[in-house]
Amino acid sequence: MHFNIVTLFPEYFSGPLTCGLIGKARETGLLSFSFHNPRDAAEDKRRTVDGPPYGGGPGMVMLPGPLCKTLRGLGFVPRDDAGPGPLLLFKAGGTPFGQARAAALAGEATRSGHARTLTLICGRYEGIDARVEELFPAEAVSVGDFVLNGGETAALCLIEAVSRLLPGFMGDERSGEEESFAPGPGGGLPEYPQYTRPEVFEGLAVPKILLSGDHAGIALWRRQASLLAALHVRPELAAAAALSPDDRAWLQSVPRPAVGRNLYCALVHFPVLDREDNPGTASLTNLDIHDIARSSCSYGLGGFYALTPLEDQRALLRDILRYWTAGPGARTNPDRARALALVREGRDIACAAADLERSTGTAPLLIGTSARTGRCGLPEMSFAEIAGRLQTRPVLLLFGTGHGLAPHALEMCAAVAPPLRAFGAYNHLSVRAAAAVTFDRILHDWG
Ligand SMILES: C[S@@+](CC[C@H](N)C(=O)[O-])C[C@H]1O[C@@H](n2cnc3c(N)ncnc32)[C@H](O)[C@@H]1O
Question: Which of 68, 149, 223, 410 is deepest in the core (most CB within 10 A)?
Fold first, then answer.
C-alpha cells in the first residue's frame, strides 16, 4: 500500500515511519510513503500557504491554491472522482475514524490485489479553506473529540490502524482479528485483559483458567471479560456488539453498577400550567401512573412519586395501587404489581424531597423537565451530567402534567434537564413518553 501524505511538515514523519513494524513493512515493500508539501506549490516568493480567516477570528487558514495544485499534481481532478485512490482529509469535526473503517480501507487494498494508494491531507493552523473539500470530494475523518496541532498525528494513527490489517504486516495474522473493536466474531468489543510471566506478580496471580489448558473455558472467560470491560467502560459498545444468546443470558446475570437506583421521578399535578399558561392543578390519570411505573421499573429507578394536593385524587391513587399491588390485578399480573409497587403517594414536591431525604439519608438533587428551552432561567444540566450526579446522591426528576411545571415548581429545582426534540417543529410528547425517553437518555440500556 502506498500513502501520499500531503503535509506542511514532512519531517514530522521521519521517526515514526522508520521504526518497528512500519519500518519493517517499508523494507519489505509492503508499505511505501511519499510526502507532498503544499509550500512547494505556493506561487509567491515567500511561499505563503496560509491567510487570515474571512469573517475574522484568531489564527490562519490554509490557502486553497497551493493545496489544490498539490492534489492536481497527484492525479486528482477537481469536481471528479478520478484520482489515484481514496482521498482522506483530517478534521477534528470529521466522521469518527474507527476499526471498521480501517478494516474496510485495508480490505479494499487486499481485495484489489495490486498496490493501493491512500492520499491523506493533513491540516494545520485553524484548518483548511472549505472550498478544497468542495472541489476534491474527500472523506473528512476525525481521530477523536479533541483538537490536535495538525493532521500529522491523526495521519499516523490512520496509517498504523490500516497497515496492521494488511496481510503480511504482523507476524501472526490472527493478532488483528482478535484485537479490540475487531468486527466479526469479536463483535466490536474491547479486548479481554492480557497476562504474561510471572504467574504471580507483586502478590497478584494470573486468573487460574488461563493456566488450565482448557481452550473452551479460556475462550469463554475472555469473551465474558470483554463484555464486562464494555459494560463498565464503553457500554455503548456492548449495546452495539454482535451478541450471541449465551452472551445475552450472561449479561443479564451480571450485577450492574445500578446507578439507576439513585434516580427517582415525580409526576407533579400541582403547580402545573394550563393551556393559557396559568398555574393550577391537573387530574391524576390511571394511564400515566401505570406507564411511568413500568418505565421506572424497567430502568431500575429507586421510586416514582405521584404528587397531588387533592385528597380525593390521592384516594383514587390508593385505590389504583391497592387493586394492582394487593388486589385482583396483582394476582393476574404480577409484573404490573412489581412496577406499581414503586409508586409513592405524596402531596407536593417538598413532601417528596423530604421523604427521599428521610429514606436515603441525603437530600435529593431536584431536576426539572420542560419541553421548552430557556423558559425558566434555570441552568441546563446535560443527561450525562445527571448520570454523573447519580453516583453520589439521589436525583429527583420532576415531570409536569397539564402544560408543564409551573414557574413555582421549577424554582425549587437546582437545574433543568435538556428538552427532548428541542429542534423539532412539533414537540408535544405525552408526559409518560417524555419520562421514558428521559430515563433512557440518562441511563441508556446499562445504567
Ligand atoms: C489546530 S487544528 C484546527 C482545529 C479547528 N480550528 C477546529 O476547531 O476544529 C489543525 C488541524 O489539525 C487536524 N486535527 C486536529 N484535531 C484533529 C482530530 N481530532 N482528528 C483529525 N484531525 C485533527 C486537522 O487537520 C486540522 O485542520
Answer: 410
